[in-house]
Write a structure and sequence with these properties.
The protein has 3 helices and 26 strands. By secondary structure, it is mainly beta. Strands 1-25-24-23-22 form a 5-stranded antiparallel beta sheet, with no helix packed on it. It has a 5-stranded mixed beta sheet with strand order 17-21-20-19-18, with no helix packed on it.
Length: 390
């Protein structure tokens, strides 16, 4: 554990005494149709920003206000075969962050710190060693690293050797040993020309502070084969990355898609997760933002579940879940969880809502922690039983 991070963690209680927690206003709750569980949120850009757990009536089950202040990606996770909490705490600049990924026990005490990482992914995966029967916990983490490149071909007008672009990395870290077992770089594998977001405004590429965010890694998951599924928001592409050498096996969406998308599209997506992985057929879930605040909207935000057939090189939409009101934008954040009985729980990112749908698309739960049009957002939202603070 990092002592410095622990001191900062504990000292936030002095500021929290002057703040009030946000409220969760439940607008719809269909008895018998909603899956039991608690709602995990980390509202930001709102008074009382902190990690919270709410029950389905909107009452606060747990408040991290006196412990943490603003965090991202607060969710239950498994570590050392037991239930823990995971979150990220740090400083957010223009679209990415620098801070610590933290694993906490049920009493909300820090038991593991992973320093100097970005907030976009903190995903602990378990793998079983068939030889000795031991389970290895591996954390998937992202980092955004500004580096210098010649960007003159993309309209950056200064000295060709002085342009700045962000190299998005993800690492797989063995939590038992602390060693990085895999490290992947976007610049090593994805050309700048795949980006759909050119240098502009706060990502103009002129300085290190305003480095061009050409890729914007928004999630990482791992397949049973050991390959990885990487989501890039600014190429609107999902990549399958070899877990052996980092090469790209295929692309879904974007400028160079390996697959034909049959009757649907997605763009600027977040939180791509592997639902099933059987032979040549993969089922993926994602939050489709359809907007990134740099390029024109491509439609309304939605949750999507898609099937990818590697053999036929086709992808088809299995289910889509739309926000109850059309025409609203979710330009940032967002998540989708598949729950028991096929229900789907969606956090709408910069739309400060959470919703639950049945598998056939019926809206059975809706709640908000702020009003639309405010700056409030929760990068992701999760639903699961709460077994902390015992």
């Amino acid at each position: 554990m990092h002592l410095t991070g622990t001191i900062a963690w504990l000292s936030f209680g002095l500021l929290a005494a002057t703040q009030s927690p946000p409220t969760l206003t439940v607008e719809k709750n269909v008895a018998g149709a909603v899956i039991p569980g608690s709602i995990y949120l980390a509202p930001n850009k709102i008074p009382g920003a902190a990690p919270y757990v709410f029950n389905l009536t909107g009452s606060t089950v747990f408040s991290g206000l006196a412990k943490t202040g603003p965090v991202h990606n607060f969710h239950p996770c498994t570590y050392n075969k037991t239930e823990h909490f995971c979150l990220w705490k740090g400083t957010v600049t223009i679209g990415y962050g620098s801070g610590d990924a933290l694993v906490l026990d049920r009493q909300f005490r820090v038991v593991k710190t992973l320093p100097n990482v970005d907030f976009h992914e903190f995903n602990i995966k378990q793998s079983l060693n068939p030889t000795n029967g031991k389970v290895t916990d591996t954390a998937l983490l992202t980092s955004y690293i500004p580096v210098q490149r010649d960007l003159s071909a993309f309209g950056v007008p200064n000295d060709p050797s002085q342009g700045w672009v962000i190299d998005c990395h993800f690492r797989a870290v063995d939590l038992n040993s602390g060693k990085t077992v895999f490290d992947w770089s976007s610049l090593d594998h994805v050309p700048l020309s795949e980006s759909l977001v050119l240098p502009t405004g706060g990502i103009n590429g002129l300085t290190q502070q305003f480095a061009w965010d050409y890729f914007h890694m928004s999630s990482v998951d791992r397949l049973s084969s050991g390959d990885y599924i990487v989501s890039s928001r600014h190429t609107s592409t999902i990549y399958r990355v070899s877990g052996k050498d980092g090469s790209i096996t295929w692309r879904l969406g974007g400028k160079a898609s390996t697959f034909t998308l049959e009757g649907f599209k997605f763009s600027s997506q977040h939180h791509v997760r592997v639902i099933s992985d059987v032979g040549d057929v993969l089922t993926l879930s994602l939050f489709d933002n359809a907007y990134n605040a740099f390029t024109p909207p491509q439609g309304d935000p939605s949750g999507k579940i898609i099937e990818v057939d590697v053999a036929t090189k086709t992808a088809r939409l299995l289910r889509q879940y739309n926000f109850p009101e059309a025409g609203l934008e979710a330009y940032d954040g967002g998540s989708l969880m598949v729950l028991p009985k096929g229900n789907v729980f969606i956090g709408w990112g910069s739309l400060p809502y959470v919703t639950e749908f049945t598998s056939d698309g019926q809206l059975v739960y809706s709640a908000r922690f702020a009003v639309y049009g405010s700056s409030a957002f929760s990068y992701r939202a999760f639903k699961a039983p709460f077994r902390g603070i015992t």
